[in-house]
Design brief:
This protein is of the alpha+beta class and 138 residues long. The chain is built from five helices and six strands, in the order ααβααβββββα. The strands form two sheets. A three-stranded antiparallel sheet has the order 1-3-2. Strands 5-4-6 form a three-stranded mixed sheet, with no helix packed on it. The radius of gyration is 16 Å and the shape is globular.
Length: 138
Amino acid sequence: MNTASDRLLKNFRLRSTPTRQEILHLFLKRTYALSHGDIEKEINNDFDRVTVYRTLKTFLDKGLIHKVLDDEGSLKYALCNDACNTAGHHHDHVHFKCTACGQTSCLSVEIPAVKLPKGFRVNEQNLLIQGVCERCAK
C-alpha cells in the first residue's frame, strides 16, 4: 500500500502505525484545522486519548503539522507545507475562522511584517481573521 499518508510518514522518517495512518489520513481529507476533540470524534475508538495526543506531538515535533490558535484560545492543528521539518516550522501565514461554520483554515497570505520596539524579539506569530468563508458565503 503506497498511499499519500504512507509517503508522508516515510518522508518525515516516521514509522507507519495504525494510529498515525488514521490521524494523518484525517488531516489529508480536511481542508481546515482540527482540534484534539475533532480528531477523537472521527477516528477509530481503538485509540485512546493519550495515544492521539502523543501522535499529534510527534507530528508537531517532526514538522508534519503546525499549531493553529483560534479566537477562543483553543488549540487546533493543520498540515504543514513543504518548508517545515524537525528543525522548525515556517508558518508566517494568516489563519481564517468562519463565523458561520466555525472552521479555521490556513490561507496562502503572508502575515505582514510588524516592527517591534527595540529589545523585543519574535519567537512565533499568529494572525487570525474572522469572517465568512467562501463556502458559507454562497
